[in-house]
Amino acid sequence: xxxMKKALYLTFIINFLVNFTPILFAQDYVLGEGDVLTISVxxxxxxxxxxxxxxxxxxxxxxxxxxxxxxESIEKIxxxxxxxxxxxxxxxxxxxxxxxxxxxxxxxxxxxxxxPGLYELKGxxxxxELISKAGGLKEKxxxxxxxxxxxxxxxxxxxIIVNLFxxxxxxxESLNLSIVNGDNIYIPKxxxxxxxxxxxxxxxxxxxxxxxxxxxxxxxGGVNDKAAPTRIHIIRSTDGKEHVREKVKMDLPxxxxxVIVVPESYF
Length: 267
Prior knowledge:
Layout: H1 2-28, E1 36-41, E2 44-52, E3 58-61, E4 65-68, H2 74-86, E5 95-101, E6 105-111, E7 117-121, H3 127-133, E8 144-151, E9 154-163, H4 164-168, E10 184-187, E11 192-197, E12 203-206, H5 213-219, E13 233-238, E14 241-245, E15 259-262
């Protein structure tokens, strides 16, 4: 029953993220060459028109003529049109703009997805939708996505890190970012550590930032009756070489790929 409720909840969250986010996206979307807009004026059906933004960033509208649209948001271009119509044409015009077709945009997603590569963004595309297009996450994918994004007037890319666990499991819709043209998304491999020797559940475990030796042993079910807890050591790879840390303290933070070895007692 709990699993069914959780599945229904996750389905609701994903549907919400997919259906609601485009509304927010359209408000912030920056118009550019090739976008197709349908522009209507309340109570004036004769002024309804569908236009494509030209190569020089212009659109042509009834009564107004040519108007620069590239580089503007939906809200700004709407305000501009209302101001021009109010100047001798219509009293208190109410303009509505709908993006019929987005210009061709592409983004790359690599790493822990089943079908990495370059994808065309047809219309509005969120991070969840792009992951779905790429065949979903691999089993060993980490719970974060790293997005590299171009910044206007800067050669440096903006780095955005999204917690995929909070997005996909906890349903934090604010993390379902809109993917824009030129984005590079990388989902790294899951970080792990190993516990072996005299513990109840020797195995490979997911690494978490700040994890200590005692917390790692707890994940492995604790030490058994044969263990020598004062002689626990860690095998750690540094620069391609293995190093052994002897008699580690229980509050020592571990690192990804550490091998925690719990030896057998002499007695």
